[in-house]
Write a structure and sequence with these properties.
The complex is a heterodimer of chains A (379) and B (376).
Chain A lengths: L11 H6 L6 H21 L4 H23 L2 H38 L2 H5 L7 H8 L10 H33 L3 H14 L3 H19 L10 H26 L2 H9 L4 H28 L4 H7 L17 H10 L8 H33 L6
Helix pairs in contact in A: 2-3, 3-4, 4-15, 6-15, 7-8, 7-10, 7-12, 7-14, 8-10, 9-10, 9-13, 10-12, 10-13, 11-12, 12-15, 14-15
Chain B lengths: L5 H27 L19 E7 L4 H14 L3 E6 L3 H9 L5 E4 L5 H11 L4 E16 L7 E2 L1 H9 L8 H6 L11 E5 L4 H13 L19 E3 L1 H11 L3 E6 L7 E2 L1 E4 L2 E3 L3 H9 L2 E2 L10 E2 L13 E9 L1 E2 L2 H15 L1 H11 L6 H12 L2 E2 L2
Parallel strand pairs in B: 1-2, 1-3, 5-10, 6-7, 6-8, 15-16
Antiparallel strand pairs in B: 3-14, 4-8, 4-9, 4-14, 10-11, 12-13
The chains are: A mainly alpha (379), B alpha/beta (376).
Chain lengths: 379, 376
Amino acid sequence: MLTTTNNSTSTPRTLTSKQLPKFTPWVVAIGSIIVAIIISFVSFGGFNIPVVAVLAGLINMVAVFALSASYEGRRKATDRVATTIVTSSFVLACVPLISLLWLTVSKGGAAINGDLLSRTMLGMKGVLDQQYVAGEAALAGGFYHAIVGTVLITLAACVISIPIGVLTAIYLVEYAGKNRLGKAITFLVDVMTGIPSIVAGLFAFALFSTIANVIMPEAAGIAKTGFTAAVALSVLMVPIVVRNTEEILRLVPMDLREASYALGVPKWKTIVKIVLPTSVSGILSGITIAIARVIGETAPIMVTAGFAKTLNWNLFSGWMSTLPTYIYDSQLRPVSPGDAALASSERAWAAAFVLVTLVMVLNLLARLIAKVLAPKAGR
Amino acid sequence: MFSYSKGIFVKLKHLAPSAAILAAGALTLSACGGTSATGEEVGEGSNSDLQGTLTGIGASSQKAAMDAWTADFASENSGVTVNYSPDGSGAGREQFLAGNAQFAGSDAHLDDDEVEASKEVCGPEGAFEYPVYISPIAVAFNVEGVDELNLSPSTIAKIFKGEISTWNDEAIKADNPDADLPDTKITAVHRADDSGTTENFTEYLKAAAEKDWDAEVSGDFPKDFGGEAAQGTDGVVQTVSDTDGAIGYADASAVGSLSKAKVKVGEEYVELSPEAASKVVDASEQVEGRGEGDLAFDLARDTTESGAYPIVLVSYHLVCSSYKDQETVDMVKAWEKFVVSEEGQKSAAESAGSAPLSDDLRSQIETVIDSIKVEG
């Protein structure tokens, strides 16, 4: 993988005679890790992961260069060092991702069970957690209400933002051309992409508070509903859907549209029957990625839907919990302070595990959709 | 060429069965779900016919107690949902005064401007407020070989100011003539973040040891005083547990197995206990110039009352003196009465480690709650 055979070298003789075997980089890498561990034990008094990682990286780089320079020559050595740097960067980029996944799976996977998935926080109090920590009872509580809230709010956000997003993208690609309105919309979509999520939440909350005050001035606190949260999420979702769909629609070859027009098909029918079916896989996977992006939002949900402890199926009345707000609330403000906060933390990790799984399934689904529905080039 | 239109719909048909299975699965889950935290039906024996939702916003310090109250209240009144958003005391008062919540939780009582503002939302008598949650703050220490420690307010102030740096200092010796104190260095641990615990702790030092504590009362610990900063209550407890010679302040419910210092009040050293903590509220004066239903207290941090523990956090509930309809009035009355009832206070004490209200104060508060009425 790391060995490069460069056939354009001017002297083929050196290529055949002086080349390190293919497995060399791996051997060197393993060797440098071992050396780094030894150094760590000798001079830092124990196994210290960050020290070992940094040392191993440096030793590896120097060793690769020295070995290659002495055997293969300077040019090859430089090339190998470049390869090493690129590979190390890749490994470095994977570290947070893998450690996050590992932590979620090990902590959340250990805590999760069917009860957590099917119970709510109705009737939950600190005493139950203290009993659990003392080993007298099973872990009480759960986040069924948060799963329902996540699904409902995200679905509602999709219902609002997908038609708006896809139609906007169709307008931009098929109708706007280079007119002013098109440019203005593109600019506004760009601005919307950069809106911090809390601002979207505050916007939705302010909007619905105002409406609630006009319609029912005497009722207190009716602006916080699942639907308000859905509106906040759709503010975040629309620009992503527009962007993704626009990219995909632009990929549809102009020939297809022109062929359709040449047969006398009107514009709307060309779009519905030719452009959209051709790009449906891309549009759907773009939408799925947008969903995966907003499903983990915490701040806008806290502002707009509150922290519900009980199951609520009604989007238009009452507070709702979603998995992210549930995790936030459990971890930051445990049901029982002190030693028994551990129980809240366990529930939070289990909820995080479910959330990460949900996002991963959505991303895989996007891949699957793209693959299954992709038009075959049957030339 | 691309094979589109027809092909797409055929493919969608292939996907349909799996989508149907998913949907069916979701429905099954929903059919068996929706149970309570313990899997048992909540509110089976409920004999109240109250129906509706109460919304409260406010102090996060009350969150654990609020969890216990809502849990127990729900088992007696299954028709009422009580929502509480722990956004903070300031946010709670603001939202309450804007009419966005039926009640609020606050670590501080209303100031005079807010009392005026409350008359617009709550009718001519304004808002009612009364303490519902008393939480003692422990001065916890970890010194090898020392299990008991007496501290006077001025010694505590000097320790947290960094003026006393070893455990065998003369000032500490004076408080503990019989103890065998080591010459370990003192590590004073304080909260790194803005917190109500710090505010109440510094308020106590300012009141009880004014000569030694010259900093302003604030939720942020004064940076000039040095010492070790730790994030959150858990952080303080963790740091104190890990460091020999450390001392810190934290909510009593969170200190776990750490030793707690006795604090000098008058001529005696008072051990932290729920009774001692609620006693300080009884010994305090009410804020002057307030209406009948306004039970705001100026906490007597410098009290000399025997057996009172003065380092406490007192959190209030704010309700309106009148609401627009009878249902809300009934719900608020039932809810607030439960919160201050013996049962409610006991539940909070078990779950959140708070100190129950005294009987005198409870009967006072109940009178206030009884006077909540329908507007007009």
